[in-house]
Amino acid sequence: MAEKDFFTPDERKLFLANYHKLLRLTGDSFLPADTRKLKEQLVNFIKSDQLKRDIFGLNPLLKSLQTAIIVADEIGMKRASIMGIMLHESVSCGVTTLDEVNRMFGPDVAGIVRGLIRVQELYVKSPSIESENFRNLLLTFAEDMRVILIIIADRVNIMRQIRDAENNEARLQVANEAAYLYAPLAHKLGLYALKSELEDLSLKYTEHDIYYHIKDKLNETKKSRDAYIARFIEPLKKNLEDAGLKFHIKGRTKSIHSIYQKMKKQKCPFEGVYDLFAIRVILDSPLEKEKMQCWQVYSIVTDMYQPNPKRLRDWLSVPKSNGYESLHITVMGPEGKWVEVQIRTERMDEIAERGLAAHWRYKGIKGETGLDDWLASVREALESSEGTGLEAMDQFKMDLYEDEVFVFTPKGDLYKLPKGATVLDFAFMIHTKLGSTCTGGKVNGKNVPIRQVLKSGDQVEIMTSASQTPKQGWLKIVVTSKARTKIKQALKETEAKQSAFAKEELERKLKNRKIEFDESAMMRVIKRMGYKIITDFYQNIANGTLDINAIIEEYEDQLKRETETVETQTRTAEGFSLQKAMESEDDNTREDVLVIDQDLKGIQYQLAQCCHPIYGDDIFGFVSIKRGIMIHRTSCPNAHDMRERYGYRIVKARWAGKSVGSQYPISLMVVGHDDIGIVTNITSIINKEDGINLRSIGIEANDGLFSGQLTVMVSDTSKLNALIKKLKTVKGVKNVSRL
What we know:
The protein is an alpha+beta fold. The protein has 27 helices and 20 strands. Strands 1, 2, 3, 4, 5 and 6 form a six-stranded mixed sheet that branches. The two termini are 55 Å apart.
């Protein structure tokens, strides 16, 4: 495919302008021959006839270029990351090989290309990650932190470009994933500007009306808000100048997503959110005077305005694990309004805006201890976990968004733990053996149980006993993924030992009675007793829930039945289960849809009670942890919250076959004038309808109006809609709606 055929005129102009911008942003990080060799690779790729647009119709080379600019300009990463972004599409399509990249640009660039291709392969079928691939995605992230930063930048770029995309379903998938995966990742890595943008754009695409309602409200109040900020800043600026400090001050309005979350949490309208903005004081301070001058500003601010001591956040003394340093204080400003003031230096501000990349540059190192530890724990938990992809997602998201508490050992060593961590979490963080034998602790010299929640500043000593072992109940006490993983491993090892001992005991008792042990016959006994997992059966023998003598009697009966049977040993066709994996020739076009049918087998599903879906409704599936797949209407009142918080659990679903023989309870709300005989008329219409039964009716009348809630049994939406239409024709009925 020639360049002129693939690039539109606007894309060609944009590509050339962005290419020159990227070269300017790279500064002196490129090697002398890099620009020439990169240009050759791009030209070869364009001429190769391998360029393919994505599901949104975006040009892959232009998209890579825009992502590279975000990485260079907004995160501050240089040569290896930029080269990796620009080359990975070419390698993915087979135009260039990893060996060639390694030879021309070095192993660092080749490593990033390899990581990006691994992530790209996980997204082959869908624009959002599937739960079964989630663990692989995170393991790829954990191999090279730069891959995380690049993928976040790529998702920001895609979210900026798909505003007018025609594929609304794919856009919703991408937007939901941005909110539940990439925004938390950006938060953890200190990329607060990109995190806010991802959350805002996600809200814009998933909750269009809410987004623009808040945006319009912000625009309406901008003038008065700016005037208030000016009144707050003016005297503060004078006092800071009198103190001889070099600084600049800016007001920052909270993100639309942040305001929406406050509205939901506080259950109030836009007008009820009082802290719509924050004041940021940014000092031009030498490194050795940073903390002193920040606390000097704190003193000046709190002398002028009454502080709220409960809202002091000190990340100067102990920075966050992502390198974030700042001092936050909330004060009572003019007109009795609470105002958050953030105090930091230019260096701290750049780290807050650009995250890890800026932190690395200032520290002069390639890694950061807190995040290296976090990534190590992610890798350890994922590699040793046997749970589902959904469980991994839940735990990972929880780990991302948790605030931190800082606690000390008796020797004064500092440890960072997520908010809500207990003494038991702390014990496992120090060492697995210490956690496994933990019986309690001493917090600030006082004896406390293992479930004691720790607070910042606590000094913790762990108490142990050689006879102590992990218990099942411990999983409800701990919050860290490391502790949960180690406890589960210990419990499984204990259960395996107990099950093996119970099996040996059963076989020994059978041998003592001169009864031959037959594995297949015992399996049939276990299955008949209702056990799906063999270890559960032997575990119940070990803990005394099952009587071993009763099991032997069952086993003898089984052997007797099998001996007396007259069936031949020839297996019939009924003994076989034919399973055929039907695969499309093109995996890229295959899409998983749960088809709800009366004959559906092998999948546990239930119709949700919150919205009562019936045959014919537009539906989707939600994968629950314990109850299988819950089927909801797309108009379910809980649908928005489920998509926003657990978008990765959503499964496409549709009805199949016919609704013959199936009836569903549906509640209707009927509102109208309280006329004589209206209830009789309503029930008469329902009784005349074929295949519809009235289950219950409740009527309330007040000031000449009535409202009634009816529950009817109906087979599908066509009959339901026909019934609603007829009920609306009843004289005096004002409205009929489905609940």
